[in-house]
Amino acid sequence: MHATSNRPAKRRTSLGRKLLLAMGSALATLTLLEGGLRLFCPLPPAAADRVHRYLPSWTAIGPAPRTLRTDPGTLHGVTPGIVDNAFNRFGFLYPEERHQRREAAELRIAVVGGSTVECSMLAPSKRWPAVLETELQARLARPVTVLNLGLSAQDTRTHLATTSHIVTDLDVDACVFLVGTNDLGMVTSSNHPMLENDAFLPPPRWSRMVTNLLNDTQIARHLRVLREPRQGEGTTPYFAKAAAFQASLPPLAEDLRATATGLDHYARNVVTLAGICKEHGIAVLFTTQPCMFPPDPTPEQLRVYWGCHTGTHRISANNFVALLAVANERLRSTCAQHDYPCVDLASAVPKGLDWFYDQVHFNEAGARRVAEALVEPVCSLLR
Questions:
Q1: Which of 10, 30, 82, 116 has its CA 20 to 30 A from that of 379?
Q2: Bridge partners, 107 (sequence order)
Q3: Sign of CA dihedral 152, 170, 125, 67
């Protein structure tokens, strides 16, 4: 009886020893692997993962400088293949060596906005700021530099910091602002934009510190390299999962509406952007935001509609179009009131998938159309 009662205890002891042995063996293997990688195949550390106090754009893209390799997948009107996005020390796509004027005759233009300026899913030469540079050089027969300061998901709150700290240091002759889409959250809110939830960064946590420590090992660095896309073989758009999630949500019971408070904040930001540029001798040009959707979106167009939901309910395509139209109209009226030049790109770029790969992002033909629509206004601005 006594011997039988000891068997479960012995089994537990034996199992515990085996587990400890397995854990020790795994730890020893990982230690040997880490040591071998450090000695024979070390990779450089990533840039420090810090939060910038004054440049939200720097924080948004992560540690800068850095290069992000992306496979956009299959997008309407976009040549398939891997896209390498090289962000400079400030977190923007313009090359570091172009930060300062290279010669006296050089015409320098900054372009500020969100992802519809950034165009990060297009090859660098096919993004509309790059196409605009080429078109202006041909038109003016002089050196032209167009600096891409677009950054995904950033609105006029961030653009104020970007303009104050970066644009004014670029020695540019003009600054073009393409705004509207990312400000819809502000436009539909009655809160002060500095007190919105997205205006705050989460506090640091111990778990984040442990994660950062693990991510700095040679094993983690090599795993990140192995996970990078290699050949651009994606068969679905990069946003396919996000679009499917949005489509699975029920629609809002009532459409979102712009508020007088939100529109006033948006207009004030526009005026402040123009004022900063004026005081630094920089000519300013605003543009409205085009949209893919016609009055009656097709099922094919709705399949590439994403990023427009509350987390629990989706915003209808028609509601999105209506809100963007209100924001565009407020931009036009603000520019008219203060005599700021404004190009109505919303009317200049046709609707549909021939020009966009989702509701607002330009494909290669759309990017070229934007650049072509801006050539004459930019030339007129600088005469």
A1: 116
A2: 144
A3: negative
Domain boundaries, the chain: 1-42, 56-381
Q: Which architecture does CATH list for 56-381?
A: 3-Layer(aba) Sandwich (3.40)
Q: How many CA atoms lie within 13 A of 185 on its CB side?
A: 18
CB neighbour list of residue 132: distance below 8 Å, 6 or more residues apart: 109, 111, 146, 370, 371, 374, 375, 378
Report CA torsion sign: 83, 86, 92, 98: negative
Global pTM reads 0.85
The residue assigned the tokens 């934007």 is: 370
Q: Distance of CA 14 to CAs 1, 3, 6, Å?
A: 21, 16, 12
Residues 285 and 381 sit within 8 Å (Cβ to Cβ) = yes
Task: Decide: 72 and 234 in contact? Cβ < 8 Å.
Answer: yes
pLDDT per residue, tens digit, the chain (383 aa), is: 455 556 666 666 777 788 888 888 888 888 888 888 888 888 877 666 667 777 766 666 666 788 889 999 999 999 999 999 999 988 899 999 999 999 999 999 999 999 999 999 999 999 999 999 999 999 999 999 999 999 999 999 999 999 999 999 999 999 999 999 999 999 999 999 888 887 776 666 666 667 777 777 877 777 877 776 765 567 899 999 999 999 999 999 999 999 999 999 999 999 999 999 999 999 999 999 999 999 999 999 999 999 999 999 999 999 999 999 999 999 999 999 999 999 999 999 999 999 999 999 999 999 999 999 999 999 999 88
